[in-house]
Amino acid sequence: MSMDYGLAGQAAIVTGSTSGIGEAMATALAEQGVNVVINGFGDAARIEHDRRALEERTGVRIVYHGADMTKPDEIADLVDSAWREFDRLDILVNNAGIQHVSPVEEFPPEKWEAIIAINLSSAFYATRAAVPIMKAQGRGRIVNLASAHGLVASPFKSAYVAAKHGIVGFTKSIALELARSGVTCNAICPGYVKTPLVEAQIGDQAKARGIPEERVVEDVILAAQPNKSFVEYPHLAGMLLYLVSDLGASTTGASLAIDGGWTAA
């Protein structure tokens, strides 16, 4: 039996929510009766099909906004559109992100700029636009998707690690600014989640290394996770629902690891 988190009728934005973790987060909120603005790239027909299906299944309003997370004006319009659509904004989930892996001396500058823009700066621009609305309401919840890489580092991921460490610091600063406003700000720091992108990497790594996929999972992908298990979408959704509900009212400025023990050492 699912738990009622008391969120029905609220309004949320989830960036990067047309696939993967963001889609799971948007779905979890919709299933709790939250009207959601989804955002992200992908095939327009598939996005519309999924939007309509989620709306019909949950009975809430699901609105798509195609803001480019590298463009501050479009991010501001995303937030403004949500407020115009629902006359409120209760939840902002800054989830949009991309990745590139390369030694620093070979790291393409355009990839660095894109990762910093999408993984870090977009959270600033969305938060900047959302905070006045939430302050006026006297309540709001901002949840930033960081990563275990916001707490520890790995080689060849300089831009991603820098951006995710930046998200953790940004979260703390915003939490302190808003501590008496009724608005909280927290970060979720997942380990490896079996997203479509990661699933593709498993097959590619198996071919490149000439080893079975199960060995790739345990010895390569999940090498840093002591439990040797992928983080599952419901684990992240459960943390999100706690943070955005009244249960999470005293949790702010936290960076919450859901990583199978990765950052415990």
From TrEMBL:
Signal sequence coordinates: none
InterPro entries, A to Z: 3-OHbutyrate_DH, NAD(P)-bd_dom_sf, Sc_DH/Rdtase_CS, SDR, SDR_fam
Pfam families per the UniProt record, alphabetical: adh_short
Recorded superkingdom: Bacteria
NCBIfam families named in the record: PHB_DH, PRK12429.1
UniProt record similarity statement: Belongs to the short-chain dehydrogenases/reductases (SDR) family.
Name used for this protein in its record: 3-hydroxybutyrate dehydrogenase
